[in-house]
Amino acid sequence: MNTKIVNRHTVIADPPLARFLFSDTRMAAVWLLVRLYVGYSWVEAGWHKISDVGAKTNYIIDGSGILAFWARIAAVPAAPAKPVISYDWYRGFIQLLIDNHTEVVMGKVIAFGETAVGIGLILGAFVGVAAVFGGFMNMNFMLAGSASSNPVMLILAIGLILAWKTAGHIGLDRFLLPLLGTPWKAPRVESAEGTQRMRVPQLA
Questions:
Q1: Which whole-number Å values give the CA distances from 57 to 42, 48, 54, 144, in the listed order?
Q2: pTM value?
Q3: Residue 122: which pLDDT band, with cuts at 50, 70 and 90?
Q4: Which of 65, 128, 136, 164 stands the most exposed, by the fewest C-beta atoms within 10 Å?
């Protein structure tokens, strides 16, 4: 007797509201506004660091600006004052960067990274990836004790990550994602009768 083993997988469908918000191209115009706001904010922040050539404030010459920031947030004040950084492990990480004189490299990474994230979001190129890096920087700034606009930017970045398939539809992702074969190619599934192609709705 021949025994056939068929792997059965359960695909849990998204609720209608989630599909509309994150997978429907009708929401692309809304995500475009979010992209432009977040992207402009990153470009503005990054370009300011690139163009700053102050002896004590620059990021891309010798990193004096980021070093001064690290020194301020890593300092532990006398009690009862509380340190800027709440988590000891993150303060230790910042101190490690200071001790190893990484400001020359990290200053450039931060300045050009912020600018690149902003340009990617504005152009709608690999929006999901750009939003991940942007959210990662927001998280680090918040861990460093800098709230400012970072909580709002992080929430918007999470939204762009969830809507990665359609957030760049009015942008370069409309052409870039199909070239990569995602998300419009239907996946293949194995069945007892052979390989069949699943029928999935095509995005507009």
A1: 18, 11, 5, 18
A2: 0.83
A3: very high
A4: 136
